[in-house]
Amino acid sequence: MAKKKKAAKKSSPAPRIPRKEQYSKDRVLAVVSRVKEQTSRLSSLAASMDSAEVVSVKIDGHAMLIRGLNQIDNFIDNAQRAVREAKVAKSGL
């Protein structure tokens, strides 16, 4: 009878990103800068489509874009709530 092989150890998953992180005004502005750059690239894409008289294209990854936009909305809501809570804590209410 053949011997059973030991199960191979699973490689450990990538370390998790902390759920909460400190954000300074400068860090938020860096995020804003990145989003502005992405906005510029998307605007350029639309202009390219317009100049090429392309009505529409089928783009892979559409669902990722929608999830990403929703995540940005969620991040902004959470950040606004954190600022309100910090204001209240600072005023001692």
Describe the structure.
By secondary structure, this protein is mainly alpha-helical. Helix content is about 60%, strand content about 0%. The model has no long low-confidence stretch (mean pLDDT about 90).
Topology of helices and strands:
Layout: H1 25-51, H2 62-91
Shape: flat
In percent, how much strand structure appears in the residues? under 5%
Largest sheet: none
Helix- and strand-based class?
mainly alpha
Q: Poorly predicted ranges (pLDDT <50, ≥5 residues)?
A: none
Count of DSSP H/I helices: 2
| Beta-strand segment tally | 0
Could you report the average pLDDT, rounded to the nearest whole number? Answer: 91
Proportion in helices: 55-70%
Evaluate the radius of gyration.
23 Å
**Distance between the terminal alpha carbons, to the nearest Å?**
74 Å
Please trace the helix and strand order, writing H or E for each element.
HH
What descriptive keywords fit this protein?
2 helices, single chain, 93 residues, mainly alpha, flat
Concise account of the structure shown:
The protein is mainly alpha-helical. The protein has two helices and no strands.
